[in-house]
Protein backbone atom coordinates (compact mmCIF):
# COMPACT_ATOMS: atom_id res chain seq x y z
CA UNK A 1 0.00 0.00 0.00
CA UNK A 2 1.31 3.45 -0.89
CA UNK A 3 2.12 6.10 1.69
CA UNK A 4 -0.70 8.23 0.29
CA UNK A 5 -3.36 5.57 0.89
CA UNK A 6 -1.84 4.80 4.30
CA UNK A 7 -2.14 8.50 5.21
CA UNK A 8 -5.74 8.68 3.93
CA UNK A 9 -6.74 6.04 6.49
CA UNK A 10 -6.67 8.66 9.24
CA UNK A 11 -7.86 11.88 7.61
CA UNK A 12 -11.30 13.42 8.23
CA UNK A 13 -14.17 13.28 5.75
CA UNK A 14 -13.87 16.04 3.18
CA UNK A 15 -10.06 15.90 2.92
CA UNK A 16 -9.05 16.44 -0.73
CA UNK A 17 -6.05 15.26 -2.73
CA UNK A 18 -5.17 16.08 -6.32
CA UNK A 19 -6.18 13.49 -8.90
CA UNK A 20 -2.56 13.17 -10.07
CA UNK A 21 -1.37 12.46 -6.51
CA UNK A 22 -3.96 9.72 -6.16
CA UNK A 23 -3.31 8.22 -9.62
CA UNK A 24 0.43 8.22 -8.93
CA UNK A 25 -0.30 6.16 -5.81
CA UNK A 26 -2.78 3.68 -7.31
CA UNK A 27 -1.75 0.01 -7.19
CA UNK A 28 -1.57 -0.49 -10.96
CA UNK A 29 -0.54 -4.03 -11.89
CA UNK A 30 2.55 -4.82 -14.01
CA UNK A 31 0.54 -4.03 -17.16
CA UNK A 32 -0.52 -0.64 -15.76
CA UNK A 33 -4.08 -1.81 -15.08
CA UNK A 34 -6.51 -1.84 -12.18
CA UNK A 35 -9.70 -3.93 -11.86
CA UNK A 36 -12.90 -1.89 -12.12
CA UNK A 37 -16.22 -3.24 -10.90
CA UNK A 38 -19.29 -1.63 -12.48
CA UNK A 39 -22.41 -1.47 -10.33
CA UNK A 40 -25.83 -0.10 -11.30
CA UNK A 41 -26.16 3.13 -9.33
CA UNK A 42 -29.81 2.84 -8.29
CA UNK A 43 -30.22 -0.89 -7.68
CA UNK A 44 -26.75 -1.95 -6.51
CA UNK A 45 -26.69 -4.75 -9.12
CA UNK A 46 -23.12 -5.77 -9.95
CA UNK A 47 -22.91 -5.64 -13.74
CA UNK A 48 -19.36 -6.47 -14.74
CA UNK A 49 -15.67 -6.31 -14.01
CA UNK A 50 -13.20 -4.91 -16.51
CA UNK A 51 -9.77 -3.28 -16.51
CA UNK A 52 -8.80 0.38 -16.59
CA UNK A 53 -5.48 2.08 -17.14
CA UNK A 54 -4.65 5.64 -16.16
CA UNK A 55 -5.76 7.02 -19.53
CA UNK A 56 -9.14 5.23 -19.51
CA UNK A 57 -9.83 6.30 -15.93
CA UNK A 58 -8.96 9.93 -16.64
CA UNK A 59 -11.15 9.88 -19.78
CA UNK A 60 -14.04 8.37 -17.82
CA UNK A 61 -13.76 11.03 -15.12
CA UNK A 62 -13.54 13.82 -17.72
CA UNK A 63 -16.38 12.70 -20.01
CA UNK A 64 -18.74 10.65 -17.83
CA UNK A 65 -18.80 7.90 -20.50
CA UNK A 66 -17.14 4.83 -18.98
CA UNK A 67 -14.00 3.82 -20.85
CA UNK A 68 -12.04 0.65 -20.10
CA UNK A 69 -8.81 -0.85 -21.39
CA UNK A 70 -9.47 -3.89 -23.59
CA UNK A 71 -6.71 -6.41 -22.95
CA UNK A 72 -7.80 -8.55 -25.91
CA UNK A 73 -7.84 -5.63 -28.36
CA UNK A 74 -4.95 -3.75 -26.75
CA UNK A 75 -6.78 -0.42 -26.89
CA UNK A 76 -9.26 1.84 -25.13
CA UNK A 77 -12.81 0.49 -25.07
CA UNK A 78 -15.64 2.94 -24.54
CA UNK A 79 -18.48 0.85 -23.15
CA UNK A 80 -21.25 0.77 -25.77
CA UNK A 81 -19.20 2.07 -28.71
CA UNK A 82 -20.01 -1.03 -30.76
CA UNK A 83 -23.18 -2.30 -29.04
CA UNK A 84 -24.88 0.96 -28.09
CA UNK A 85 -25.20 -0.32 -24.49
CA UNK A 86 -23.43 2.60 -22.79
CA UNK A 87 -22.42 3.13 -19.20
CA UNK A 88 -22.71 6.65 -17.80
CA UNK A 89 -20.59 7.31 -14.73
CA UNK A 90 -22.42 8.42 -11.60
CA UNK A 91 -19.51 8.03 -9.13
CA UNK A 92 -16.09 6.41 -8.90
CA UNK A 93 -14.40 5.15 -5.74
CA UNK A 94 -11.06 3.52 -5.03
CA UNK A 95 -10.83 0.93 -2.28
CA UNK A 96 -8.77 1.51 0.86
CA UNK A 97 -5.47 0.30 -0.62
CA UNK A 98 -5.98 1.93 -3.99
CA UNK A 99 -5.92 -1.26 -6.03
CA UNK A 100 -9.58 -1.72 -7.05
CA UNK A 101 -12.15 0.67 -8.50
CA UNK A 102 -15.88 0.65 -7.89
CA UNK A 103 -17.83 2.47 -10.59
CA UNK A 104 -21.40 3.50 -9.93
CA UNK A 105 -22.97 3.64 -13.39
CA UNK A 106 -26.20 3.99 -15.28
CA UNK A 107 -26.19 1.05 -17.69
CA UNK A 108 -28.20 1.21 -20.92
CA UNK A 109 -29.53 -2.30 -21.62
CA UNK A 110 -27.34 -5.35 -21.09
CA UNK A 111 -23.82 -4.94 -19.72
CA UNK A 112 -22.63 -8.37 -20.83
CA UNK A 113 -21.47 -9.29 -24.33
CA UNK A 114 -23.81 -12.32 -24.07
CA UNK A 115 -26.80 -9.97 -24.10
CA UNK A 116 -27.51 -10.46 -20.39
CA UNK A 117 -27.94 -7.57 -17.99
CA UNK A 118 -25.00 -8.69 -15.84
CA UNK A 119 -21.85 -10.67 -16.60
CA UNK A 120 -22.42 -12.55 -13.34
CA UNK A 121 -25.09 -15.02 -14.47
CA UNK A 122 -23.49 -18.37 -13.59
CA UNK A 123 -24.51 -19.21 -10.02
CA UNK A 124 -22.30 -21.70 -8.19
CA UNK A 125 -23.70 -23.84 -5.37
CA UNK A 126 -22.92 -27.22 -3.92
CA UNK A 127 -21.80 -29.47 -6.75
CA UNK A 128 -23.03 -27.49 -9.75
CA UNK A 129 -23.53 -24.28 -11.62
CA UNK A 130 -26.80 -22.80 -12.87
CA UNK A 131 -27.38 -20.06 -15.43
CA UNK A 132 -29.66 -17.63 -13.62
CA UNK A 133 -29.81 -14.65 -15.98
CA UNK A 134 -31.96 -14.25 -19.07
CA UNK A 135 -30.60 -12.99 -22.37
CA UNK A 136 -32.15 -9.58 -23.03
CA UNK A 137 -30.77 -9.15 -26.55
CA UNK A 138 -29.40 -11.81 -28.89
CA UNK A 139 -25.62 -11.25 -29.00
CA UNK A 140 -25.65 -11.42 -32.82
CA UNK A 141 -28.10 -8.50 -32.88
CA UNK A 142 -26.32 -6.66 -30.08
CA UNK A 143 -23.15 -6.38 -32.14
CA UNK A 144 -24.73 -6.12 -35.58
CA UNK A 145 -23.86 -2.39 -35.46
CA UNK A 146 -20.11 -3.02 -35.49
From TrEMBL:
<feature type="binding site">
    <location>
        <position position="96"/>
    </location>
    <ligand>
        <name>Zn(2+)</name>
    </ligand>
</feature>
<comment type="similarity">
    <text>In the C-terminal section; belongs to the PRA-PH family.</text>
</comment>
<dbReference type="GO" id="GO:0004636">
    <property type="term" value="F:phosphoribosyl-ATP diphosphatase activity"/>
</dbReference>
<feature type="binding site">
    <location>
        <position position="112"/>
    </location>
    <ligand>
        <name>Zn(2+)</name>
    </ligand>
</feature>
<dbReference type="GO" id="GO:0005737">
    <property type="term" value="C:cytoplasm"/>
</dbReference>
<keyword id="KW-0368">Histidine biosynthesis</keyword>
<feature type="domain" description="Phosphoribosyl-AMP cyclohydrolase">
    <location>
        <begin position="48"/>
        <end position="121"/>
    </location>
</feature>
<keyword id="KW-0028">Amino-acid biosynthesis</keyword>
<dbReference type="GO" id="GO:0004635">
    <property type="term" value="F:phosphoribosyl-AMP cyclohydrolase activity"/>
</dbReference>
<comment type="pathway">
    <text>Amino-acid biosynthesis; L-histidine biosynthesis; L-histidine from 5-phospho-alpha-D-ribose 1-diphosphate: step 2/9.</text>
</comment>
<feature type="binding site">
    <location>
        <position position="95"/>
    </location>
    <ligand>
        <name>Mg(2+)</name>
    </ligand>
</feature>
<dbReference type="GO" id="GO:0008270">
    <property type="term" value="F:zinc ion binding"/>
</dbReference>
<keyword id="KW-0963">Cytoplasm</keyword>
<protein>
    <recommendedName>
        <fullName>Phosphoribosyl-AMP cyclohydrolase</fullName>
        <ecNumber>3.5.4.19</ecNumber>
    </recommendedName>
</protein>
<comment type="function">
    <text>Catalyzes the hydrolysis of the adenine ring of phosphoribosyl-AMP.</text>
</comment>
<comment type="similarity">
    <text>Belongs to the PRA-CH family.</text>
</comment>
<comment type="subunit">
    <text>Homodimer.</text>
</comment>
<feature type="binding site">
    <location>
        <position position="119"/>
    </location>
    <ligand>
        <name>Zn(2+)</name>
    </ligand>
</feature>
<dbReference type="Pfam" id="PF01502">
    <property type="entry name" value="PRA-CH"/>
</dbReference>
<dbReference type="GO" id="GO:0000105">
    <property type="term" value="P:L-histidine biosynthetic process"/>
</dbReference>
<dbReference type="GO" id="GO:0000287">
    <property type="term" value="F:magnesium ion binding"/>
</dbReference>
<dbReference type="InterPro" id="IPR026660">
    <property type="entry name" value="PRA-CH"/>
</dbReference>
<keyword id="KW-0460">Magnesium</keyword>
<comment type="pathway">
    <text>Amino-acid biosynthesis; L-histidine biosynthesis; L-histidine from 5-phospho-alpha-D-ribose 1-diphosphate: step 3/9.</text>
</comment>
<dbReference type="InterPro" id="IPR038019">
    <property type="entry name" value="PRib_AMP_CycHydrolase_sf"/>
</dbReference>
<feature type="binding site">
    <location>
        <position position="97"/>
    </location>
    <ligand>
        <name>Mg(2+)</name>
    </ligand>
</feature>
<dbReference type="InterPro" id="IPR002496">
    <property type="entry name" value="PRib_AMP_CycHydrolase_dom"/>
</dbReference>
<feature type="binding site">
    <location>
        <position position="99"/>
    </location>
    <ligand>
        <name>Mg(2+)</name>
    </ligand>
</feature>
<keyword id="KW-0378">Hydrolase</keyword>
<keyword id="KW-0479">Metal-binding</keyword>
<keyword id="KW-0862">Zinc</keyword>
Amino acid sequence: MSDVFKRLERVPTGTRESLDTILDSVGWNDAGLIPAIAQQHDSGEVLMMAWMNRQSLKETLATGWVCYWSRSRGKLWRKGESSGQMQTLKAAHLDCDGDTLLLSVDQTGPACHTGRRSCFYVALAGDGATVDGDTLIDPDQLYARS
